[in-house]
Amino acid sequence: MAKINLRPWREELRAEKQKQFVVMIVGAAIVAAGLVFLWKSDMDRRIAYQQSRNAYIETATKKLDAQAKEIEDLKRRRDELLARMKVIQDLQGKRPVIVRVFDELVRTLPDGLYYTDLKKAGDKISIVGMAESNNRISELMRSFERSDWFSEPSLSNVSAADKSRAGYSQFNLSVMQKTPEPQGEDAK
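Now predict its structure.
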C-alpha cells in the first residue's frame, strides 16, 4: 500500500517557522531591552558619579574662594597695619628732632640777641628777633652756617626797634632745618 500524506505539512512547517521567528524576535527584544536597561543603568551610575565629583569640586571651589577672600582681607589689614606702623615710627623718629632744634637754636644764639617769634613751615624756620648790633646778627648767621642742624641762613630785614627797646634792631631771618647724620652712640 502506498503511503500518501494528506496532511497540510507545508502549512504546519510554515506555522512552525513562524512560531520560531516570533520566539526569536521576542527573545531578541528581551535581550535588547536587557542590554538597553544595563546601558541606561551604567550611564545613570556614571552621571551620578560625575555629579558627585562636580558637587565636590564646587564645594572645594567655594572653600578656596572664601580662603582667598580671607587672605586678601588679611593682606589688606597687614598693609594698613604696616602703614600705621610706618607713620608711628616716623613720628617716633621725628619726636626728639624738635627738642634738638630748640636746643641748637639756643646754642647758636650769641649774647646781646634774643628771639621774639619763631615759625616753622616744613623745613624752613622763620625767626624774628632783637639784636644789640648788626655784628650780633652776623655772628648768629655764621653760627647757623656752622651748625649741624641748620643751613642757608637768609636775612630779609633789619630795622630799628620801637622806642621801648632803644638801642636794639629788629631782624627777620629764615633758616633751613637739616637732619644731621647719626654719629656713633649719640645716634641712638
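The beta strands are 113-121, 124-131, 150-160, 169-177.
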